[in-house]
Design a protein that fits this description.
Blueprint lengths: L1 H5 L6 H8 L8 E3 L10 H10 L6 E11 L4 E11 L3 E5 L5 E6 L2 E6 L4 E5 L2 H7 L5 H9 L11 E6 L2 E6 L7 E6 L6 E8 L4 E13 L2 E13 L2 E14 L14 E2 L3
Parallel strand pairs: 7-15
Antiparallel strand pairs: 1-12, 2-3, 2-14, 3-4, 4-5, 5-6, 6-7, 8-9, 9-10, 10-11, 11-12, 12-13, 13-14
Length: 261
């Protein structure tokens, strides 16, 4: 684990922040199955997707993270807490690395490197070629679309037993692709790419689970490509509790060096 934490340096902030965004989900009843209906329109699928949006207030638990950058593979287990629409908090064992994200702030520190970052979402927005904010991150975590599908018109077809949605008019700076699983109309895959810059963010949801009548991700695979760099992050969610009391102890230690991005 110590070796894993030492990899979180300035040149790998993008990967570190992606890790920070992941919430944990208890391994309970795994949701699978479901049959696609070829008669459904894209509008009907999108409507069902938003009808099944999770309605919890808080989450807490742990997530096992497997990270690979093509040269090395590391594993670590972290604690995660989340208050919907307000905060996401992460802590590695002994608080060696902590992160705290709110709608206005992205902040984390690393005691092994005596350094910290405290700023807004502009760095992530620049990397992805589109605006990134707290709601996009929250949707990513809970199996919701990272953009509002109700704001555009989509073509629909069937792919890998899922509904495949592509915008009728793709953006000039980036392109999007969504796959929606047929049982609960949650995301099966989300893809955001910027071909001219050779950037790709792909989030695959391996399966879902039922917990207190909520449908939440059970396993997530994240692939981030930036030119010649490929980072893969696999997440296995465990020991989730919903709607309990949570707090977010966080304070940047004195004397740490600020990371310049």
């Amino acid at each position: 684990m110590m070796k894993f934490l030492r990899t979180i340096k300035s040149k790998q902030i993008f990967t570190a922040v992606i890790i920070i965004f992941m919430v944990s989900c208890k391994s309970t009843k795994v949701v699978s199955g479901g049959t696609v209906d070829e008669k459904l329109s894209s509008k009907s699928v999108i409507k069902a997707h938003y009808q099944n949006e999770a309605g919890f207030k808080t989450l807490s638990g742990r997530v096992k993270i497997s990270y690979s950058d093509g040269e090395s593979t590391q594993n670590v287990s972290v604690s995660i807490r989340m208050e919907k629409d307000k905060a996401i908090w992460m802590s590695a064992p002994l608080g060696i690395v902590k992160a705290y994200i709110t709608p206005d702030r992205v902040s984390f520190y690393n005691k092994l490197q005596n350094e910290y970052f405290d700023g807004d979402f502009s760095y992530l927005s620049e990397l992805l070629g589109t605006d990134v904010d707290f709601s996009i991150l929250q949707n990513l975590l809970t199996g919701q679309a990272i953009v509002d599908l109700r704001q555009e018109k989509y073509d629909i077809d069937i792919s890998d037993d899922s509904y495949r949605l592509t915008p009728k008019q793709q953006g000039t700076l980036y392109k999007t692709l969504f796959k929606v699983e047929p049982k609960n109309y949650k995301m099966a895959l989300q893809q955001l790419s910027q071909p001219t810059e050779k950037r790709l963010l792909e989030i695959t949801y391996q399966n879902y689970q039922i917990l207190d009548k909520e449908i939440l991700p059970n396993e997530i695979m994240v692939r981030a490509i930036s030119k010649d760099q490929v980072n893969n992050i696999d997440l296995e969610f465990k020991n989730l509790e919903l709607n309990g009391a949570v707090n977010f102890p966080y304070s940047i230690p004195k004397g740490f060096n600020e990371i310049e991005l």
